[in-house]
Amino acid sequence: MLLLQIIIVSTREGRAGLPVAKWFNEYAVHHGKFEIELIDLAEVNLPMLDEPNHPRLHQYQHVHTKAWSATIARGDAYVFVTPEYNYSVPPSLINALDYLYEEWAYKPAAFVSYGGISGGLRSVQMAKQTVTTLRMMPIPEGVPVPFFAQAIDKEAGTFKPNELHEKSANTMLNELLRWAEALRPMRGGTSPR
Question: Rounded CA gap, 105 and 85, in Å?
């Protein structure tokens, strides 16, 4: 079974990304087509990129980079649960992407985004330019969550999806699986029979 890594992008205290990601993680587990790994960039705690060599050389000097490399290398597909900061990509996501190069290649990426009226879509559009440069395939399907605060129960710390969120999640996961399987030979694996 292919490994889908769900990456919580926001590292801020009190972030909405945590309840949104927990919901999506449960949904992906229930979907049942991927093995799931939830990764929290707040826990990974990467410093601002501090490697002396370009990531394409794979000559990592720091323990945190070697650990991040091993984590991302085992994934077959990614879903980034991301907010939008000032119409753009959160620095935590750009930093996490910039640390590595080969580990991201030939894997599909999708986004669960949240924000105000745009649902984080401006952040996603900008992030897609970066992931394409890293030879990932950003799929068009996504799960935007506009006015996210209205869907979060602050006392319980949970996200309450609506029917559109769930339908979008299902469509996105199905498409992500197609791309992950199609790109497997480019990652050095074998095609499923």
Answer: 26
Residues 12 and 147 sit within 8 Å (Cβ to Cβ): no
List pLDDT tens digits, range 95-142.
999 999 999 999 999 999 999 999 999 999 999 999 999 999 999 999
* CA atoms of 81 and 182, how far apart (whole Å): 23
- H helices of the chain, in order, are 17-31, 41-44, 63-73, 91-98, 121-133, 163-183
Q: What is the CATH number of the domain that holds 130?
A: 3.40.50.360
In a domain? residue 33: yes
Residue 131 φ/ψ, nearest 5 degrees: -65, -30
CB 121 within 8 A of CB 114: no
Structure-model confidence comparison of residues 16 and 76, the more confident one: 76
User: Can you tell me the distance from the alpha carbon of 145 to that of 143, in angstroms, rounded to the nearest whole number?
Assistant: 6
Inside any domain, residue 101: yes
CA atoms of 155 and 5, how far apart (whole Å): 28
* In-domain check, residue 115: yes
For the chain, the domain total comes to: 1
What's the pTM value of the predicted model, to 2 decimals?
0.96
Question: What domain range includes position 28?
Answer: 3-187
Residue 192 lies in a domain: no
State the residue for tokens 């745009």: 118
